[in-house]
Amino acid sequence: MVTSPYAARPAAKGGPYAIGKAGQEALMLTLSQELKGTGVTANLLQARTIDVKREKVTSPTAENAAWTTPEELSAAILYLLSEEGGALNGAKLPLYGSY
Hints:
This protein has 99 residues and is mainly alpha-helical. Helix content is 36%, strand content 8%. The protein has one domain: NAD(P)-binding Rossmann-like Domain (Rossmann fold, 3-Layer(aba) Sandwich), CATH 3.40.50. The mean pLDDT is 92.
């Protein structure tokens, strides 16, 4: 599941969003415990902003430097789906940009 750091550190006036994300995280982390030993895993990919317009690459700024590109999300998902990634369960992986 893709989540946000705001689940743990909500911004002003962001209560409903933070509550929703915190609930989703609790569900996934509970599933990770319930699924232990089955070969099925449940993990969280944490992104601040998903840079669908590729602004981090085309118009880099200090603000968008920590945004996550769709390619970074895809790479993390592919890893989690790989044989090596199968060892991760119940992990919260921060993807705050690497560009």
